[in-house]
């Protein structure tokens, strides 16, 4: 006999030899012991995981000449030595008929099968029909088989193997026992490959066998087929083939996962040029964009699973080194970012299947990973709206003019403060007893409003001042501000070692959050009442519910707060809870605190604004940006 491939040579001949399908083999062995065999079975699952193999072993067990419990057959496993077992194993048994349903799928073939099933077995106990790829049988053919399958002769057993059980009619499935096979675990495939390597006298590195097991993707047959190919291409060392990881990667056309680790490190650092240079090296080395996208999808999936369950999670079916690599990459991103990255790369992979310029689409897809990091999480937007932090929409009509005090004021009393990109304005209430209007400086009493004319005279000689570049808030303008606009450079954070009190801690934490991009959390905590205790820091946030607090102060923001508290020497345990704004016991209830480096903070800290607050006895509720682009 000529050479036999590994997948056939090491095909299991006993239930105990089948890897990864214990739930199926245990049930069938118990059924054989109790003599509770059904007349119809459906074996479904991934390719190459043992569906047809178990059907053949079951056929041997049913027709085995030896009795269960005898010396030749102490267990329900087939003896493997009688004529029936040998003939079934060789594929020439008269009473075990294997039919390729992909080619014998019509109603005529099924009618012939149905007619033949009426006759008793030629020699063995049962006449067994194994229908491979059963989902390809036509609907009419299934209908022809329906009555026979429902009330078959006592000597007939049907076994159907399929990868698409949903395509088998429900009327057929309801008349059979359905076994859903599992994908074979990575460890089971790796153990089988090591055993075969020892049997075949092949010298193999552990990393090489792990790569073969991972390439199998849950299919034992796929892994053995790739191993067969790798042994054929391996160089000989002392007369024995030697499998190395470099040789297998070259054979499979794959790249090491260290490459994808570097790519995602460049994504995390927002280094677009580095990302494109690494990709260019891969493409110039001959790797196809489609193959790179497929491997990156797999790597991102493993990274996401490492982020969810840790390095040792069962969700990762890879080697120990690859687990550590995936865990390192997972630390660079949040769960939301990894989910978004995986979605982008999956869509890019789909696009590459029907696009002409595959390289351009792959480059575009990887650049999207960097650009997507600049997106603002939806919870920050929601919390900003709920907290009243969003600016008022722009009002229609003519632009407001500066009044005598240097503040912008709407041209008519009914007009809302106008929002213009690049600048900001505050509109004081000019009517005695006016209700507070969001976006303006609101007088607290009629006396304050009546003193506005005197204050205006004192402020007439105050001239507009130039704009300052504010980098921390994302605003930058080289153009001068329009008349009456205000902008001031942000106040620097206080250094460690200053007097430790609730107010300084509040400002430092809010500054750290704002600098790290958590503007909503910075504003929410900055507007709260802080109380410093011996073992914890208590923060009471008025007007905000528990659910909104949880959305705004998320895990990333909480980590920054704890780091800043540790840096300041304060207790790292802090509690944020809803409150009514009342203060007690040394707590600090501050006026609304704008994010450090923002235009709002620059306006609130400017001497002119502070002087105006003293004159009007007023409070600044919000600041609107009015500078022209």
Describe the overall structure.
The structure is a single chain. 45% of the residues lie in helices and 10% in strands. By secondary structure, it is of the alpha/beta class. The protein has 4 domains: 6-180, Rossmann fold, CATH 3.40.50.300; 186-252, Orthogonal Bundle (Helicase, Ruva Protein, domain 3); 257-374, Up-down Bundle (Zinc Finger, Delta Prime, domain 3), CATH 1.20.272.10; 502-596, no CATH class. A 5-stranded parallel sheet has the order 2-3-4-1-5, with helices on one face. Strands 14-13-12-15 form a 4-stranded mixed sheet, covered by helices on one side. α8 (186-199) packs across α9 (206-216). The longest helix has 21 residues, at 289-309.
Short description:
This protein is an alpha/beta fold. 45% of the residues lie in helices and 10% in strands. Strand 7 (236-237) and strand 8 (240-243) form a beta hairpin.
Average pLDDT number = 78
| CATH-defined topology of the largest domain | Rossmann fold
Q: Can you tell me the number of structural domains?
A: 4
The stretches of 5 or more residues where confidence is low (pLDDT under 50) are 389-498, 581-591
Task: Characterize the largest beta sheet: strand count, sense, and whether it forms a barrel.
Answer: 5 strands, parallel
- The separation of the N and C termini measures 83 Å
Our estimate of the beta-strand percent is 5-15%
Q: Got a strand count?
A: 16
Strand order of the largest sheet: 2-3-4-1-5
């Amino acid at each position: 006999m000529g050479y036999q491939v590994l997948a056939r040579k090491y095909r299991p001949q006993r239930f105990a030899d089948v890897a990864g399908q214990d739930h199926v083999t245990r049930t069938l062995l118990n059924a054989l012991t109790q003599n509770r065999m059904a007349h119809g079975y459906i074996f479904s699952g991934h390719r190459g995981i043992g569906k047809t193999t178990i059907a053949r072993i079951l056929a041997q067990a049913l027709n085995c000449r030896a009795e269960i419990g005898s010396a030749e057959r102490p267990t329900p496993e087939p003896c493997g030595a009688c004529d029936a077992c040998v003939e079934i194993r060789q594929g020439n048994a008269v009473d075990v008929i294997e039919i390729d349903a992909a080619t014998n799928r019509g109603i005529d073939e099924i009618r012939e099968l149905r007619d033949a099933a009426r006759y008793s077995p030629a020699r063995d106990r049962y006449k067994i029909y194994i229908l491979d790829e059963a989902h390809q049988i036509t609907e009419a053919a299934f209908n022809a088989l329906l009555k026979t399958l429902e009330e078959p002769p006592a000597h007939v057993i049907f076994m159907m193997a399929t990868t698409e059980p949903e395509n088998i009619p429900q009327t057929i499935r309801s008349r059979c026992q359905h076994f859903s096979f599992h994908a074979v675990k990575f460890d089971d495939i790796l153990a089988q490959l090591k055993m075969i390597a020892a049997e075949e006298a092949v010298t193999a590195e552990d990393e090489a066998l792990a790569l073969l097991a991972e390439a199998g993707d849950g299919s034992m047959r796929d892994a053995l087929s790739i191993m067969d190919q790798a042994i054929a291409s391996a160089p000989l060392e002392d007369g024995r083939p030697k499998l190395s990881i470099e040789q297998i990667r070259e054979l499979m056309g794959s790249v090491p996962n260290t490459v994808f680790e570097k790519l995602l490190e460049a994504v995390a650092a927002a280094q677009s040029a580095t990302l494109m240079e690494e990709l260019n090296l891969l493409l110039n080395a001959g790797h196809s964009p489609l193959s790179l996208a497929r491997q990156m999808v797999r790597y991102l999936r493993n990274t996401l699973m490492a982020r969810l369950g840790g390095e040792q999670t069962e969700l990762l079916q890879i080697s120990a080194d690859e687990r550590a690599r995936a865990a390192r990459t997972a630390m660079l991103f949040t769960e939301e970012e990894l989910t978004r990255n995986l979605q982008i790369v999956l869509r890019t992979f789909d696009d590459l299947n029907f696009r002409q310029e595959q390289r351009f689409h792959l480059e575009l897809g990887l650049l999207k990973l960097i650009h997507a990091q600049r997106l603002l999480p939806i919870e920050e937007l929601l919390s900003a709206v709920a907290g009243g932090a969003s600016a008022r929409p722009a009002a229609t009509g003519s632009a407001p003019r500066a009044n005598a005090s240097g503040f912008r004021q709407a041209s008519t009393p009914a007009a809302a403060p106008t929002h213009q990109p690049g600048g900001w304005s505050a509109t004081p209430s000019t009517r005695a007893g006016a209700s507070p209007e969001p976006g303006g400086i609101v007088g607290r009493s009629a006396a304050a409003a009546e003193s506005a004319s005197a204050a205006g005279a004192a402020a007439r000689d105050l001239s507009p001042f130039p704009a300052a570049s504010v980098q921390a808030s994302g605003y930058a303008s080289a153009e001068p501000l329009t008349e009456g606009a205000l902008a001031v450079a942000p106040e620097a954070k206080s250094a460690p070692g200053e007097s430790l009190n609730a107010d300084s801690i509040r400002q430092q934490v809010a500054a750290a959050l704002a600098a790290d991009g958590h503007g909503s959390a910075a504003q929410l905590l900055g507007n709260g009442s802080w109380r410093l205790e011996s073992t914890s820091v208590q923060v009471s946030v008025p007007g905000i519910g528990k659910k909104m607090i949880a959305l705004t102060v998320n895990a990333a923001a909480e980590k920054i707060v704890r780091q800043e508290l540790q840096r300041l020497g304060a207790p790292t345990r802090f509690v944020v809870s809803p409150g009514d704004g009342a203060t007690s016991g040394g707590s600090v209830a501050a006026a609304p605190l704008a994010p450090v480096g923002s235009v709002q903070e620059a306006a609130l800290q400017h001497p002119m604004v502070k002087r105006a607050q003293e004159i009007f006895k007023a409070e600044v509720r919000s600041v609107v940006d009015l500078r022209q682009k």
